[in-house]
Amino acid sequence: MSTKRKILLVEDDTNLGNLLQDSLELKNYDVVLKRNGEDAFNDFKVNKYDMCIFDVMMPKKDGFTLAKDVRRINSAVPIIFLTAKALKEDTIEGLKLGADDYITKPFSMEELNLRMDNIFKRMPKTEVSTQNQFRIGNFDFDNTLRVLKIGTVETKLTTKESELLKMLALYQDRLLEREVALTTVWGTDSYFAGRSMDVYIAKLRKMLKDDPNVEILNIHGTGFKLIVKK
Predict the structure, then answer these.
(1) CA angle, residues 210, 216, 218, in degrees to nearest 5
(2) What span, in angstroms and rounded, lies between the C-alpha atoms of 128 and 123?
(3) Is the dihedral of CA 195, 3, 226, 52 positive or negative?
(4) Cα 140 to Cα 154, 203, 213, 214, 226, distances in angstroms
(5) pLDDT digit string, tens, across residues 113-135
(6) Which CATH number among 2.40.30.10, 2.60.40.1970, 1.10.10.10, 3.40.50.720 corresponds to the domain 133-228?
(7) Entry pTM
(8) 51-94: per-residue pLDDT in tens?
(9) CA distance 176 to 223
(10) Residue 167, CB half-sphere, CA atoms under 13 Å: how many?
């Protein structure tokens, strides 16, 4: 699994788009380049990105419209607008749409890299809740003692099993993204950590099988969801 930050770059100018992609990849980013807003949004709907860089004036779907569509499904991903316009009205429009920054052409790669770095530094790191006791269906789970209990049956968990179950419990009935679980519990989202997590998920499924209303779903390519049926 790649540890590179993934960037969605949308620029209809062929030369500039290729230049930006090459320069960002040299900075160790994983860059996907699209030439129009429509193709970009179709890609965004099925892939996870750490940042979006949108040209404003594009065919099929302009950068502002693209940003509106992106914000409907992801309110947190950082967005930088690239524009040939320096009009105050355009800057305000971009900020209203939730843009994190706005760069007027022409610009240097050094400027773009610095602005990207500043945005990533401002982004909050995943914080783990101080909650340590959970009710999961008919189970009582104590993360401090690392004990999972149903009726009179107690199961002692390892540290990794307990921390992973805590993350699932905190996200109960919601998607727990693989990267979030990996970086929180393992401290890395490497390929080997990912395989290790899959083994621990299988172990947790066996531990929870005594309550048929509790299930850990695998959301393909995205993460997991701890479901407690009512």
Answers:
(1) 145
(2) 15
(3) negative
(4) 9, 17, 14, 12, 15
(5) 999 988 887 765 555 567 889 99
(6) 1.10.10.10
(7) 0.55
(8) 999 999 888 899 999 999 998 887 778 899 998 766 666 666 76
(9) 6
(10) 27
